[in-house]
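In this section we walk through a basic example: taking a raw amino acid sequence and producing a predicted 3D structure, encoded as discrete structure tokens. The instruction is simple. Fold the sequence below.
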Amino acid sequence: MTAVFLDGIVLGLQFGLLGVGLTLVYGLGGVLNLAHGSMAVVGAIIVANAMAAGANVLLAVGVGLLAVGLLGLLLDATIMQAVYRLAGESRVLLSLLLTLGVAFVLDGLLVWRYPIGSLGIHIGGDPVQILGVGMRTGSLLASVISIAAGAVLVAFFRYTTAGKAVRSVIQDEVGAKLCGINPAAVRSLIFGLSGMLAALVAVTRSMTAPISTTAGIDFTILALIVTVVGGLGSVSGAFLAGIILGVVNTVSSFYIGTYITTIMLLLAAALTILLRPSGLLGRRA
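The resulting token sequence is shown next.
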């Protein structure tokens, strides 16, 4: 049981990081990016191709993160501009439709160009004993990277001028604008950062299991579930929900079977909506 629980935490940290990117975009612009998972897979395939071309792992990962970050900026500067002109439910609906179209395009291009492409980063080394359980080096490294990324995000939002500007726009866009903050520039920054976080999740996930070109929809579904359970717009809620759902996922897979894990996660999301519509750490309306 300890091994299952530890595996759940490892997976949950990745879930949390995946949800953070989605919830930041929603908190700032009031939009839901259904291409989030597809962008993660784009990053994974770019990393895989860079490694196949002879680049070392660190360089390949850097290229992949940068490329997906630029993709996020491109989406923000093009199709999302039409979304930002709307408000309320109209903005959310249009964002769902447009980003779903982007997801279809990205998934189609990936399957067409790289039908058997995948990213798998092998981390060698002997298992490390944690609470009497031998943990794979790849799992531990993935967890360390996820925790480090979370710590960097916390420091960014708490101590940097750009991070404080992001928080200001999330809390009160009109007030932030009166203080001289450009909400459009902040949204662009976060859209690019969201893409890089998605790609980073794909990289860390590939240290424990290969990432194929068809994994985009799975990533998006997981990100949506984590975001709903944690609370839309709550970064800490996304991490908390990610860890909880990661444990639920591994326990369900171990005792019930992988075929029903997605159903269990959806049930957890539905239960959260019924008991606490704002999410675990989301702000009440």
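Looking at the output, two observations stand out. Residues 124 and 263 are 34 Å apart (CA to CA). The chain has twelve helices and four strands. In the next section we compare this with other chains.
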